[in-house]
Amino acid sequence: MKIVVTGASGLIGTALVPYLRKQGHEVARLVRTRKVAADAIYWDPDNGELNPHDLSGFDTIIHLAGANVAEGRWTEKRKRLILESRVYGLRTLTEAIRGCAEKPTTLISASATGFYGDRGDDFLDETSESGTGFLAEVCREWEGGLREVESTGLRTASLRLGIVLSSNGGALGKMLPAFKCGAGGRLGSGKQWMSWISKVDLLRVINHVIVEHSIHGPVNAVAPQPVTNEEFTKTLARVLKRPAVLPVPAFMLRLLFGQMADEALLASARVKPQVVQSSGFSFTHERLEHALQSVLS
């Protein structure tokens, strides 16, 4: 298939592009600088610039672009950037699709398990309602924009991403220095549920959604065995052969990160990947310890 990817320079995108090429797909990247490579297509999502001709003939669009949620405190300015970077990007894609002579058939957009908000011990699947808070609002807006895409006749899917396990960045990448020094520990009470997925399985899930045309709508991109934060930190310490005896109190996290602490670090989301499992997908890494051993080997 011919696939175009936004956010190709991010944590997921840098792994996804070569992975898809190994699967036999032809892949192009949407970039914010004028054409610098044969596989690059220029766009400016902030100003709605994308030539419809450049998307014509592609089968699938994978939309990963958006400001990093975990970068810096959530000031009002930062929250506006997080929301608008997602809304404007999808809007720019939609308008370009409308003008395509030969439209793509599928658009797969990133979302997040933040859609569910802080839900305690509840089991959550793709039919569960949205929660409250800023992250839930961002996810609702992001996924809501796909209705406009659907009106052009495309199949759409929203990947509700959990914590992506990678030693190169993301949540795990930020945790590793402290844990390698034996200075890691649970966050707050440690009872909050963490829904995670290995980077390898995330790439496989994306390819599965591309080729399985029966899949549409929300897709929980998480492993089938979520864990509590306490279990996550103990498992990570065990894999690294280091102690994990320095918990970080909730009040300290709030002092350091403000609103982001409650929604991104202390919130609980016990999410199940019902859609992909029902469609025949099997995970390489179902257990956290196995996943961490593979990631950190």
What does this structure look like?
With about 300 residues, this protein is an alpha/beta fold. It has a single domain (about 1-295), classed as Rossmann fold (3-Layer(aba) Sandwich), CATH 3.40.50.720. The chain is built from 12 helices and 13 strands. The strands form 4 sheets. Strands 3-2-1-4-5-7-11 form a 7-stranded parallel β-sheet, with helices on both faces. β1 (about 1-5), α1 (about 15-20) and β2 form a beta-alpha-beta unit. The chain is globular. The chain starts with a strand and ends with a helix. About 40% of the residues are buried.
Short description:
This protein has 297 residues and is an alpha/beta fold.
